[in-house]
Every structure is written in structure tokens, then in C-alpha cells.
Automatic annotation (TrEMBL):
SUPFAM superfamilies: LmbE-like (SSF102588)
Protein name: PIG-L family deacetylase
Signal peptide as annotated in the record: none
Lineage of producing organism: Archaea, Methanobacteriati, Methanobacteriota, Stenosarchaea group, Halobacteria
Annotated GO MF terms: hydrolase activity, acting on carbon-nitrogen (but not peptide) bonds, in linear amides
Organism: Halomarina oriensis
Pfam families: PIG-L (PF02585)
Gene3D superfamilies membership: LmbE-like
Length: 228
């Protein structure tokens, strides 16, 4: 029996510009290629804590838009909360940014940060995503992605990122790399995790674990099903 899957609405939540493509860029491109409506939410302005230049906020936004266009993302939403300071922002304010986007977009699938990593902005976004995707939200599936240069730097005293879901991105890896290349302010030279070579190596490694040429890895957070 052949089952036809209706197009879905997908939302990827990231704390900073480039988190979305680093963690789920190939998967978002795959969603777009199969006709799903894909949105990205960037919760912070992604600049002020790192660069003493207000113009970087708009630069990061433009890079995010170019990346989204390359991945096939329909809309990038911006939250404008302070970069690298979400642990100082009241939890309800972070919740509000994610809740407002979920209510507007009405996704059935949401991708967000893992809590098994070192970046506290990412922790806050993960926690707020759980609030925004509670049972009455209409969201059916929530998955946590890994973030190169953050998830993989967790120390031995902390539970690390252990994927439970792998998505074959063999046909979309080049699109992910092209999307990340839009973030000229964030790319680094190999062997830094935010380099083309490292991203390809990670995709190959995750693919080997899943029996495909290239994959992205996720941890299933929530799944609500009707029929089995």
C-alpha cells in the first residue's frame, strides 16, 4: 500500500544566526524539496556580545536571509533578544518569542537545540521550545539537533548528545554547505567545526552510523501520533 504524505509546515528554532543551518540545514533543504513549508526562527540578534559594531546585526540578518533562500526556507523570523545573554533574560520573555512564532506558523514539526551542550543561549531556547510546543500547540514532533563547536565540546562530566534519529541528507549536503557559506562572518578554517571540511566530515560520520552516504543526527524529544 502506498501512503501519500501531505505537505507539512516545519519550524527550525535557533538561538543565533547559523545555528539552523549547522544543525539541520540538510534536513530543512530536504523538507523544502519535498514540498513542505519551512520556517526558521532566530531568537537573538546574534551580534552584540561578539562584535562592537551595531551594523553586524543587519549583516547577520542578511546572511540568514541568503542562507534561507539557498535552503528553500520560506521565511526567517527574528526575535531580537540579546545575544549570549539569554540566561539573564526572564524565561517568560524567551518563551514569548518562541510561542508567538509557533502560534503564527502553526508547524507540525519543530527542530530546536539540544540541551546536551555548552552554550547557555541554546539551553534557554531548548527549554522555551518545550514550553511553546506543549500538547495544545498542535505540534506533533520535536527533534533536537547538534550544533558543531558547541554540542561536541561538552565535558566528560555532562551527558553528551546521543542521537536517536538520522535523516539522509546525501542529496542535500551540497545545499547545506552552500547555505552555510552565506554566513561569511561565521565560517572558520579547517579543522574548526564551522568549516566546510568539518561539516562534510560530520555528515559522513553520521551517515556511516545510519547506513547512508551523509546524514544529520537528531534526538527525538516529543512525538504525538494519532494512528500508529
Amino acid at each position: 500500500m502506498t501512503r501519500t504524505v501531505a505537505p507539512r509546515t516545519v519550524l527550525c528554532v535557533g538561538a543565533h544566526p547559523d545555528d539552523e543551518v549547522l544543525g539541520a540545514g540538510g534536513t530543512l533543504a530536504a523538507h523544502a524539496a519535498q514540498g513542505d513549508e519551512v520556517h526558521v526562527l532566530i531568537v537573538t540578534e546574534g551580534s552584540t556580545a561578539q562584535y562592537d559594531d551595531p551594523s553586524y546585526v543587519e549583516r547577520k540578518r542578511e546572511e540568514a536571509r541568503v542562507c534561507a533562500d539557498r535552503l528553500g526556507v520560506e521565511t526567517v523570523h527574528f526575535g531580537d533578544l540579546p545575544d549570549m545573554r539569554l540566561d539573564d533574560v526572564p524565561h517568560v520573555e524567551v518563551n514569548a518569542v518562541v510561542e508567538e512564532c509557533v502560534a503564527s506558523v502553526e508547524p507540525s514539526v519543530v527542530y530546536t537545540h539540544s540541551r546536551q551542550e555548552v552554550n547557555r543561549d541554546h539551553h534557554a531556547v531548548y527549554d522555551s521550545t518545550l514550553v511553546a510546543t506543549r500538547p495544545d500547540s498542535g505540534v506533533e514532533r520535536v527533534l533536537a539537533y547538534e550544533t558543531p563547536s558547541s554540542t561536541d565540546w561538552v565535558g566528560g562530566g555532562t551527558d553528551g548528545f546521543h542521537p536517536t534519529v538520522y535523516v539522509d541528507v546525501t542529496d542535500h549536503l551540497d545545499t547545506k554547505i552552500a547555505g552555510f557559506a552565506a554566513y561569511e562572518s561565521e565560517t572558520r578554517a579547517f579543522p574548526h567545526p564551522r568549516s566546510e571540511e568539518s561539516l562534510r566530515a560530520r555528515a559522513t560520520m553520521r551517515g556511516a552510523a545510519a547506513g547512508v552516504s551523509a546524514a544529520e543526527a537528531f534526538r527525538l524529544v516529543t512525538e504525538r501520533r494519532g494512528a500508529p
